[in-house]
């Protein structure tokens, strides 16, 4: 979100506008802060179960990607958000507006690459925790991304023709918790309440992205958390992600599905705490 330059007072007004536009929830204190980034089709409320299991007292920042949740749709620019760079720019702007340093970014799905791109623009990112992240979702020669281009085109067509039907169809597959229908229904509700046009554009920016080249440029200590089975991200993609990042490691989770922070928040919280106790060097 680009705002015009101004003096000190105007600058404070611009920062306030930015934070309000993304419905930023900044709570707690301490250093470093943890910044939570939701994935495509959800909003910051997706973090409730995990946040309640993390140690209290630390500073936590939650916000909605532009066009999602309680963000200000009047600020949505289709050109800016046609790729992930626009979302990465928002993260950088929010880190600067809050003057966060050495921040730990907890990022789900596509936000893993958004965080990575942001880390290449600013030194304010200290660590990254990627949950169910992928550098590329489309299959390529010698690479299993999980989707053929036709699969993505069918997904986008369904979103355009029957958005509610898309939500009801996709949620059970990606949650992959048939024994807990409440989790699936919550995800259906999250998908369904999103803006159809904006969500479809976000899906296009997500599933057609390819950030394999940037992986080697990210020197930030990174934990890649991968569920035992994920219909969105194959294990091979998660391994490539961790292998190509110079300071990353992969940790497997016992739970299934693309939303382990929802289906197994305790397991994810324990993995995060272990990672944060590790030396940052």
From TrEMBL:
Keywords: Hydrolase
InterPro entries: AB_hydrolase_1 (IPR000073), AB_hydrolase_fold (IPR029058)
Pfam families according to UniProt: Abhydrolase_6
Domain of life: Bacteria
Keyword Hydrolase annotated: yes
Record keyword Transcription regulation present: no
Boundaries of every AB hydrolase-1 domain copy: 34-271
Family, per entry: Belongs to the AB hydrolase superfamily.
Listed name of the protein: Alpha/beta hydrolase
């Amino acid at each position: 979100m680009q705002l015009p330059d101004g003096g000190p007072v105007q600058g404070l007004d611009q920062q306030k506008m930015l934070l309000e536009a993304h419905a930023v929830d900044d709570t707690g204190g301490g250093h470093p802060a943890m910044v939570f980034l939701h994935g495509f089709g959800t909003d910051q409320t997706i973090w409730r179960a995990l946040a309640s299991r993390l140690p209290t007292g630390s500073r936590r920042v939650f916000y909605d990607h532009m066009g999602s949740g309680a963000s200000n749709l009047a600020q949505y620019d289709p050109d800016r958000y046609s790729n992930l760079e626009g979302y990465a720019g928002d993260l950088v702007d929010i880190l600067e507006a809050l003057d966060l340093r050495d921040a730990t970014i907890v990022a789900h799905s596509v936000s893993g690459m958004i965080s990575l791109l942001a880390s290449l623009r600013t030194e304010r990112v200290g660590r990254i925790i990627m949950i169910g992240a992928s550098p590329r979702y489309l299959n390529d020669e010698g690479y299993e991304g999980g989707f053929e281009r036709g699969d993505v085109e069918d997904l986008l067509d369904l979103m355009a023709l029957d958005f509610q039907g898309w939500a009801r169809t996709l949620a059970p597959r990606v949650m992959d918790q048939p024994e807990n229908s409440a989790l699936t229904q919550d995800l259906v509700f999250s998908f369904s309440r999103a803006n159809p046009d904006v969500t479809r554009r976000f899906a296009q920016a997500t599933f057609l992205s390819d950030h394999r080249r940037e992986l080697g440029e990210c020197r930030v200590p990174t934990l890649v958390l991968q569920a035992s089975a994920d219909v969105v991200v194959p294990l091979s993609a998660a391994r490539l992600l961790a292998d190509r990042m110079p300071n990353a490691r992969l940790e497997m989770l016992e739970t299934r599905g693309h939303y382990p922070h929802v289906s197994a928040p305790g397991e994810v919280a324990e993995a995060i705490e272990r990672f944060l106790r590790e030396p940052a060097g």
